[in-house]
Amino acid sequence: MEYIYMGIGGFFGAVLRYLITIYFTKMHRTVFPIETFMINILGSFLLSFITNFTMDKYKINTNLRLAITTGFIGAFTTFSTFSMETINLLKAREIYIALNYVILSIIGGLLMSYLGFEFADKIFEFLEEREKE
Q1: Residue 41's domain spans which residues?
Q2: Which of 62, 41, 57, 54 is nearest to 113 (CA)?
Q3: Any transmembrane segments, and where (predicted)?
Q4: 70 exposure class (CB count in 10 Å sphere: 0-12, 13-18, 19+)
Q5: Cβ contact 101:32 at 8 Å
Q6: What is the pLDDT of residues 92-104, one digit of tens each?
Q7: How do residues 30-52 score in pLDDT, each as one tens digit?
Q8: What is the DSSP annotation of 48-99?
Q9: Per the annotation, where are the binding residues?
Q10: Binding-site residues for Na(+)
Q11: CA distance 99 to 106
Q12: How far is CA 108 from the centre of its chain?
């Protein structure tokens, strides 16, 4: 049954990624692959936030958590596209942009993951304080 939940989540994550890619491709014509960068940064934040909040703090149904994390966020984010875009930048001799893309993606992803965990902790602390009142 969990495969169905992951598949449903994956469907919506992939569709959202596609729509965001289409939007950014039409609106922002740059060499830097901003659409994949933004998707992966947002996905890093969401995965850390949801995982921390729903596993340690606020328990939700395991199938729902799988649908959101492994399904939706797993299909939404894309390491393979990041890798391919980096190789394409290198082949096009856009070395500076490729290096910036890799560095910003790694540092940005780690920073957003950290912020996702911290944000979940702050929300949980706030909810605990409200329950005590």
Answers
A1: 2-132
A2: 41
A3: 6-25, 37-54, 66-84, 96-117
A4: middle
A5: yes
A6: 999 999 999 999 9
A7: 889 999 999 999 999 999 999 99
A8: HHHHIIIIIIS---HHHHHIIIIIIIHHHS-HHHHHHHHHHHHHTT-HHHHH
A9: 74, 77
A10: 74, 77
A11: 11
A12: 11
